[in-house]
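worker-3 :: picked NADP-dependent oxidoreductase domain-containing protein
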Amino acid sequence: MALYVSSACFCGFSQKRVERIRAVASEGFATVKTEEEKVKLGGSDLKVTKLGIGAWSWGDTSYWNNFEWDDRKMKAAKGAFDASIDLSFGAINSETLLGRFIKERKEKNPEVEVAVATKFAALPWRFGRQSVITALKDSLCRLGLSSVDLYQLHWPGVWGNEGYIDGLGDAVEMGLVKAVGVSNYSEKRLREAYEKLKKRGVPLASNQVNYSLLYRLPEENGVKAACDELGVTLIAYSPIAQGALTGKYTPGNPPTGPRGRIYTPEFLAKLQPLLNRIMEIGQNYDKTPTQVVLNWLTCQENVVPIPGAKNAEQAKEFSGALGWRLTDDEINELRSLASETKPVIGFPVENL
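worker-3 :: tokens ->
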């Protein structure tokens, strides 16, 4: 069984006019976006576009970068950030690096506005609603900001979860955030959070969960249906299965580092029929496999994928996932082929 883990936070970008960029999520075209091309994040007033860019790997030395982080990787991450600004993409942040990149960009172009979102980790030693506010203020300090647009609970608390939800509401009322969301929440937890916030007049904007062709648990456990019913946007992390769906890896060329223990040659061999069909469909549209699988997710409706970008080239590639649509037959065929692959498991906290 393969295990997916996510540890990044959502932020995004959309372009108001050529000389002024305001960040909210992203659609990814290198053109100016209109208000009509955006969607509201859940029931909040925060407007986002249809695709984000993930930066879980930014600064990471435990999972993505073979336990090292150097100037070359720093420049690549900065390139991904700049490309996401220039192409009006979204991003997931490593707070300190994102704060640094924003500051550097503003020094070059003071007109740039970046709306950031980050997460609260329900660690065992964090108790009650005040812990949410304390952690948020620490995040704001690292980011060098006075507020963020979206604040999410990274996973449900083992205990004291109601206090965390109260903390989200407090953050809105204190003006520290514009919208709030959750992450890795089950259907039951999602509904509880929604109702508790609703009583305070605060909409639950999003639920960020693991969702891809290879990991479709949100379709099976009621999370996707509940998000659609309640008007909560589903933000899909690991939408390209940490690179496994891009066609980059083969049984003879598996990923290195911790991912190599997940996406083994045996796993990748069973994945080949799906990857071959993804490639064939992509050739018909003049699209890459990455663009095909991201388009598949956007076709599910009420879903904002946030694929990870390590460099500018990857960020630019994501723009090609939008502006076209797979047919219903292709959508269903890919889901059927994916069902024949080895099952994967997700971040264990989604079962809390």
